[in-house]
Design brief:
This protein has 345 residues and is an alpha/beta fold. It contains 14 helices and 11 strands.
């Protein structure tokens, strides 16, 4: 992998050289971190659904006088030690740790200085679900990621801040390596501020928080935004908006929510608006919500069912005047495409 040389780096010490390399190294242009401080709010649900639906979306490609439709390719990364995403797409919990080709082995400290020797493609696996789109792949998680952050912390404590910056640079260059193979990279993060979460958040071009609209779940969102705001501007990801999960819907209106959830969302919108950067306010407008997912049994079934699980038929079932799951996710994906386009306009 080729690193960019800056002539000014010749006058810097090793730590500052590494930091400069991190700033000038490009990001994967459509990498998205799914993140929140709070657990159990739907990060895995959102990551999984986005992976399935974005990889079914087709690009129009022109070849001479002909126009062809080609499906998007999506790579999922599971960095949560609970491995919920890996299990949701069909991996057996007894087998998920029996391979060396997991996120744990890919980002452990011994890898950072050997980025040019790392065969990233060997860590990519096809999603086991036989009904999953052919363009959907994953780098599976590992239950050992719980120990990884301790290894990272010990490495940084021993060798100084330079090692922390090396981790950030490694993760950014790792994601960018997949730019030619995958149009989108979507990362399911754990509910914490551990080093690996920090590194992936900095490595991504965008981040997409998800929460349940209740007072307890929404509490972590302003903290998340303030944390992101502390990241150096050159490294800071851009917010695509936020997603509301497990909506208790009422009435026939698509945005209909029970009163308690609507009240929590009003407070959430106010808090988010306060911490947005000017460019984010320009793209997201006065209402930064990008989509919402209903609280329905068929969503829970999709995540927990073993074997061939993905059925657009179930997601397209309408049981009331409310939008179906398929309509909600399709609308969400469309808005994500629009906001990425607006950021790049």
């Amino acid at each position: 992998m080729t690193e960019i040389h800056n002539p000014f780096s010749d006058f810097l010490d090793d730590e500052k050289k590494t930091k400069l390399s991190s700033f000038v190294s490009p990001k994967h242009p459509k990498s998205i971190c799914i993140v929140n401080y709070k657990g159990g709010v739907g990060k895995t649900t959102l990551t999984c659904l986005l992976g399935y639906y974005i990889s079914q979306h087709r690009n129009m490609i022109k070849r001479g006088k002909e126009s062809l439709k080609k499906k998007k390719k999506v790579l999922l990364l599971d960095i949560d030690p609970q491995c919920s995403l890996s299990l949701a797409v069909g991996f057996d919990p007894e087998e998920v740790n029996k391979t060396d080709f997991t996120m744990y082995n890919l980002v452990k400290p011994t890898k950072w200085a050997k980025i040019s020797e790392t065969k990233f493609d060997s860590y990519v696996q096809k999603v086991p679900d036989s009904l999953a789109p052919s363009g959907l792949h994953i780098i599976p998680g590992s239950f050992e990621i719980d120990d990884l952050d301790m290894e990272i912390a010990m490495s940084i404590a021993k060798d100084g801040v330079k090692r922390r910056v090396e981790l950030f640079l490694y993760c950014k260059q790792m994601l960018n390596y997949f730019q030619k193979s995958y149009e989108f990279i979507i990362i399911d993060c754990p509910p914490n501020k551990m080093f690996l979460t920090q590194a992936m958040l900095r490595a991504c071009q965008y981040y997409l928080p998800v929460t349940i609209p209740d007072a307890i779940s929404c509490y972590g969102m302003p903290r998340l935004l303030r944390w992101v705001k502390q990241i150096e501007r050159e490294e800071r990801p851009l917010m695509l908006g936020y997603v509301l999960n497990a909506i208790n819907r009422t009435g026939g209106h698509p945005a209909g929510k029970v009163v308690s959830q609507q009240s929590a969302e009003n407070i959430l919108q106010r808090d988010i608006q306060r911490d947005l950067m000017p460019v984010e306010k320009k793209v997201l407008g006065l209402n930064p919500i990008v989509g919402q997912l209903p609280r329905l049994d068929r969503v829970a079934k999709f995540l927990s069912e073993k074997g061939s699980k993905f059925s657009r038929y179930e997601f397209s079932q309408r049981t009331s005047d409310q939008p179906t799951v398929e309509e909600c996710v399709t609308d969400l994906v469309t808005k994500i495409f629009e906001r990425i386009k607006s950021y790049n306009a």
